[in-house]
Design goal:
By secondary structure, this protein is α/β, with parallel strands linked by helices. Helices cover 30% and strands 20% of the residues.
């Protein structure tokens, strides 16, 4: 039984990875999860300089999910390269570094710095809804998506995954723009923009007023968008959004995702990724599926 998948020439032992921002730099979860079993570890977003993130409170619980407005707090690429990447290199798993920025120059600085580092792929976050920077809204404009993707591809030494926002009218158009810019893959969905109000305090639950909605409540929207993106492009699609178990992951794969990322569920059950891998294997055995590729995009 083969569970290996290939994304832009990078072979993953299985299609299950972590979602950026929910697994830290990756290594700290090794106390709970055998990272060697994962298809890939996707790091928290890394910027050219340290970011403090947004003021607190910046996390709120909602029905069937959560909201966050962390603001991509991170130590900056220099600390990341010296402290975090060497730890991840100890494990037999692929490493995907998530890159964030306020402007094209900031993205390009990080991509250039990572060129000779032991990262297997780069995931470019142009879709975070809770950073106060106009450029991140460019993820909603196909022209800007294509332009930035092209700039990054010119200097990147690793395959490039563009992480797409769901806060658009036509996700297929955005996916095609990333493909036209030279993206090796796209990942989606990032969080949906939402708001929660504390009726007792009569104020916003998050200091940022709005935040990113994630968890089981977004899954139907995510599956629909992954299906549309997979129909729109020829490059691999990585699906995410509310995955809690193998059945959830299989929905994304059947909709056209080559791989999937587990995010919010890690906060409730750090072992979720391994349970998803085991569940997919059981499904394949039960249904006599010899190769995971038989399932990718099987529902049309």
């Amino acid at each position: 039984m083969n569970m290996k998948v290939n994304i832009a020439g990078v072979e993953l032992k299985n299609p299950v990875m972590t979602a950026s921002g929910t697994f830290g730099s990756g290594a700290e979860y090794s106390e709970f999860v055998d990272l060697n079993r994962l298809g890939a570890v996707v790091t928290k977003g890394v910027a050219d300089v340290p970011w403090e993130g947004n003021p607190t409170p910046r996390i709120a619980e909602i029905s069937s999910g959560m909201m966050n407005a962390i603001g991509l707090q991170n130590p900056g690429v220099e600390v990341f390269c010296k402290r975090d990447l060497p730890e991840l290199a100890k494990y037999d798993t692929k490493v995907i570094v998530n890159v964030c920025g306020h402007s094209p120059k900031e993205y390009l600085t990080v991509v250039e710095r990572l060129a000779e580092e032991p990262a297997d792929m780069l995931e470019i976050n142009i879709s975070c809804p809770n950073v106060n920077a106009n450029f991140l809204a460019f993820g909603q404009d196909p022209k800007h998506v294509e332009e930035l993707t092209g700039q990054i591809k010119k200097i990147a030494k690793q395959p490039v995954i563009m992480k797409l926002t769901p806060n658009v009218t036509d996700i297929g158009e955005i996916a095609r723009a990333a493909e036209a810019g030279g993206a090796d893959a796209v990942s989606l969905i990032n969080t949906l923009t939402g708001m929660k109000i504390d009726v007792n305090r009569r104020t916003f639950a998050l200091a940022n007023k709005t935040g990113g909605v994630s968890g089981p409540c977004v899954k139907p929207v995510a599956v629909r968008m992954v299906y549309q993106a997979a129909q729109a492009v020829k490059i691999p699609v990585i699906g995410m959004g509310g995955i809690q178990n193998a059945e959830d992951a299989l929905e994304f794969i059947l909709a056209g995702a080559t791989a999937v990322s587990v995010g919010t569920a890690n906060f409730m059950n750090p072992y979720t990724t391994v349970e998803v891998i085991e569940g997919i294997a059981e499904y394949m055995k039960k249904n006599k599926v010899e190769d995971i590729r038989e399932l990718i995009g099987a529902v049309r």
